C-alpha cells in the first residue's frame, strides 16, 4: 500500500511518496552479503528490521539477543530489551544513532507511536533533540557475552532505489577484537 505524505522541506511544502518499509531482500543483495563473509554485515529497512545478514553477523548479534523477534528489529532491541544497556557500553550514543536513522527516512508514525509506547521518555526525548543525520561510519563498542569487550568499525550505506534499505558492515577495529571474533562459535538460528 502506498500513501502520499505531505512533508515540509526547507524550501516549503512538498509531496513525497511514502511506501511501507521494505520486508524482502532482492537476490542481488543476498549475493552481495554472501561475498562479505566472514564479516559481520546485515541489511536493515527504514524502521530497523533486520532482513538479512551474514553468518558473521549471526555469530556477533545472536548471543546478545539482537536477532530475537520476527523480524529482528534494532530499535526494539536498543530501546526495549534490558540486555542492550549491558551490551552497549555507550548505550546513549547507540540510542541517539538509532533515532537519527529513523528520522533520516520518511515519517513512520505507526512504528514511532509503538516505540513511544514501549520505550517512553528514552525514545521521545531523543526524538525531540536528535537530528536525522546518522553517522555513516564510526566505532561501536560491544560487551559481548562470549567474546568480551569488542571494538568494531562500522560502515553504513543507504541503498538508493531500495526504499531506505541500509547495508551495515562491522569490522574489527583492533587485533584484540579480531582474535575475539575468531573465537566465536557458529550460532544456529532457525531462519533468516
Record the SSE blueprint.
Blueprint: E1 2-9, E2 12-19, H1 27-35, E3 40-44, E4 50-53, H2 55-61, H3 74-80, H4 83-87, H5 91-104, H6 109-119, H7 121-129, E5 137-144, E6 148-158, E7 166-172, H8 175-182
Antiparallel strand pairs: 1-2, 3-4, 3-7, 5-6, 6-7
Explain what this protein looks like in three dimensions.
The chain has 192 residues and is of the alpha+beta class. The chain contains 8 helices and 7 strands, in the order ββαββααααααβββα. It has helices at 27-35, 55-61, 74-80, 83-87, 91-104, 109-119, 121-129, 175-182, and strands spanning 2-9, 12-19, 40-44, 50-53, 137-144, 148-158, 166-172. Helix 3 crosses helix 5 and helix 5 crosses helix 7. It is globular and about 40 Å long. The two termini are 25 Å apart. The relative contact order is 0.16. Mean pLDDT is 86; it is low at 1-17.
Amino acid at each position: 500500500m502506498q500513501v502520499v505524505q505531505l512533508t515540509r522541506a526547507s524550501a516549503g511544502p512538498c509531496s513525497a511518496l511514502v511506501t511501507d518499509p521494505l520486508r524482502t531482500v532482492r537476490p542481488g543483495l543476498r549475493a552481495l552479503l554472501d561475498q562479505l563473509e566472514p564479516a559481520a554485515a546485515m541489511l536493515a529497512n527504514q524502521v530497523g528490521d533486520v532482513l538479512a545478514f551474514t553468518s558473521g553477523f549471526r555469530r556477533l548479534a545472536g548471543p546478545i539477543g539482537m536477532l530475537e523477534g520476527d523480524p529482528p528489529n534494532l530499535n526494539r532491541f536498543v530501546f526495549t530489551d534490558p540486555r542492550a544497556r549491558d551490551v552497549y557500553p555507550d548505550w546513549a550514543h547507540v540510542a541517539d544513532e538509532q533515532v537519527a536513522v529513523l528520522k533520516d527516512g520518511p515519517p513512520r508514525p505507526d512504528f514511532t507511536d509503538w516505540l513511544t509506547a514501549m520505550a517512553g521518555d528514552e525514545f521521545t526525548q531523543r526524538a525531540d533533540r536528535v537530528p536525522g543525520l546518522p553517522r555513516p561510519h564510526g566505532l561501536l563498542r560491544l560487551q559481548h557475552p562470549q567474546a568480551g569487550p569488542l571494538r568494531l568499525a562500522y560502515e553504513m550505506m543507504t541503498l538508493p532505489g531500495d526504499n531506505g534499505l541500509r547495508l551495515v558492515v562491522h569490522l574489527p577495529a583492533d587485533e584484540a577484537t579480531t582474535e575475539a571474533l575468531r573465537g566465536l562459535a557458529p550460532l544456529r538460528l532457525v531462519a533468516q
